[in-house]
Amino acid sequence: MKRLRIEHETGFRYGGDVSASYNEARMLPGTTESQFVLSAALEIEPSTAVNTYVDYFGTRVSAFDVLSPHQALTITARSLVEVRPRPIEHTGITWDRLAVEAARSLETVEQLTQTHRTRPHPEVAELAASYASRHDDPGRAAHEICVAIGDAVEYMHGVTGVHSTAIDAWEARKGVCQDMAHIAIGALRSVGIPARYVSGYLHPRPQAEVGVAVTGESHAWVEWFAGEWTGFDPTNNIEIGDRHVLVGRGRDYNDVPPLRGVYAGPFKSNLHVKVTITREA
């Protein structure tokens, strides 16, 4: 188990005064069966009231408006979280049993439907079908599919953008964690395995020193359902461990962006992001 302190600063700078902005932030982790939140708070500049709620998929949302003229908006989320590893444990469920169980719950039914971002390239669907045919246990098939995608796609910034789809990233064979998660989700759904997008943070150093602050970033991975929900990080081809801090879940990135908003004004906006992660224990 690790105790991680996370500071995530983000926001917008505008070319001049905007008269108002309306925003939602999904930057604060919640307590789950594998992580315990010791503290979590949001600081907003310009200062304003915040309405906090839990969205449809269980993610903590901070909604706020800034109704006075401002040239910049800065949101800083500070969290302290204890995290334990979540090793993969296959349940031995069969394909037929999975189909029955997945159809019983809205939670799993919704994660079988492709979105514009996750719709798989024909080559990815073929790859997924090939691995699925080799296993009687869909959980083991899901694991191999995600590993294969992680091996096939090179991690590289600048090739894809925030609006890129799984097909875009597969054709380039390059992308970031968001892209690899979308490709993996599309592949899993194509063979009847419910899968969902997970956003959060990853401490970049496996052997992190206590008390040393390092530059991090938002991260994304996947969870599949094969009797129970199981997570995997296809970007790094690793199980979800005590370096992963979960913030939100959804059908794809559209459900869990760290910051989303609109503003009133003729100026362009520039996004800035800085994430610092410190292991405290």
Main sheet, how many strands, which sense, barrel?
Answer: 5 strands, antiparallel
SSE string, helix = H, strand = E? EEEEEEHHHHEHEHEEEEEEEE
Percent of residues in helices = 10-25%
Text of the CATH class of the largest domain: Alpha Beta
Unreliable residue runs: none
| Number of DSSP-assigned strands | 16
Give the tally of structural domains: 2
Query: What's the end-to-end separation, in Å?
Result: 8 Å
Structural class: alpha+beta
The CATH architecture category of the largest domain equals Roll
| CATH domain topology of the largest domain | C8orf32 fold
Radius of gyration: 19 Å
What's the helix count?
6
The 3D shape can be described as globular
Strand order of the largest sheet: 3-6-1-16-10
| Fraction in beta strands | 35-45%
What is the residue-averaged pLDDT? 97
Please state the oligomeric state of the protein chains shown.
single chain
Write the layout of secondary structure elements.
Blueprint: E1 2-18, E2 20-25, E3 35-45, E4 51-54, E5 60-66, E6 70-83, H1 95-104, H2 106-109, H3 122-132, H4 138-152, E7 154-155, H5 166-172, E8 174-175, H6 177-190, E9 195-202, E10 213-216, E11 218-225, E12 229-233, E13 238-239, E14 244-250, E15 259-264, E16 269-279
Parallel strand pairs: 7-8
Antiparallel strand pairs: 1-6, 1-16, 2-5, 2-15, 3-6, 4-5, 9-11, 9-14, 10-16, 11-12, 12-13
Helix pairs in contact: 3-4, 3-6, 4-6, 5-6
Structure characterization notes:
The chain is an alpha+beta fold and 281 residues long. The longest helix is centred in the middle third of the chain and has 15 residues, at 138-152. It contains six helices and 16 strands. The chain has helices spanning 95-104, 106-109, 122-132, 138-152, 166-172, 177-190, and strands at 2-18, 20-25, 35-45, 51-54, 60-66, 70-83, 154-155, 174-175, 195-202, 213-216, 218-225, 229-233, 238-239, 244-250, 259-264, 269-279. Helix 3 (122-132) crosses helix 6 (177-190).
